[in-house]
Amino acid sequence: MKRYFVITDYDTLRVLNDPLRMQLLGLLIAQEATGKQLADLLHLSPSRVHYHLKELQQRNIVEIVRTQEKNGIVQKFFRAAAFDYLVDEALLPSLQMEPGLAQDVLVTQLQMAIARIYATPEASFPLFGSDSDKPLLLSGAYEFKVASEDLRDWLQRYRKLLAELETMETEFKKRMAEGLEDDPGHVFFLQNLGFITPQEYFVSTDQDLPDGYRWVNRGIVRKATSQDPIISPLNADDGEG
């Protein structure tokens, strides 16, 4: 399999912008499979799965990697063409000319993240962890109303943090190659998505948890005690408290 697949036309982008096709792609990133095997796994009709596989194959997003004859029937084994799917920058300027295509790009990126989730073992998504072994997991949807210049400054700092991760990875791999690193390390997948929206979505007259509860992790709460500190869901995501 190739490392990257570059999306160079709108039709391919639209083919990928489908939840079932992205789920199929995620499974085929993980391993090869026949249409029948995928249909059984997803509890769908083989004809429906084969239709979507054909759409993906016509755009070279998935490939037939081998065939096998069984009971006189030739089985086709499919596999994703690449591990990661990228959008060609040449597509971006024209997105402004066609309403909805810019959203298609963002949705496709999210679908790629969904495919990555399905291709990752369940053990990578723990809900709980001891104080000494907090889950290395980030999740959540947030909305902030801040001054424009403050937001630009924050985005610059955030991009610098991402650049730090790239530097950390380069140095880690160098130490591994030189035999100077004992820590096997972790592969951490991070999906970025943020945009300006004209109005607030998370608007409520009551922003607090129900009485008697406190945050543990994002999406997880527990009955509070008098000794518990008051923390926000953002701090809960970091495993604090």
From TrEMBL:
Q: Where is the PH domain?
A: 1-163
UniProt-listed InterPro entries: ArsR-like_HTH, HTH_ArsR_DNA-bd_dom, PH_domain, WH-like_DNA-bd_sf, WH_DNA-bd_sf
Offer one Pfam family short name for this entry: HTH_5
Q: Which domain of life is it from?
A: Bacteria
Official protein name in the record: Transcriptional regulator
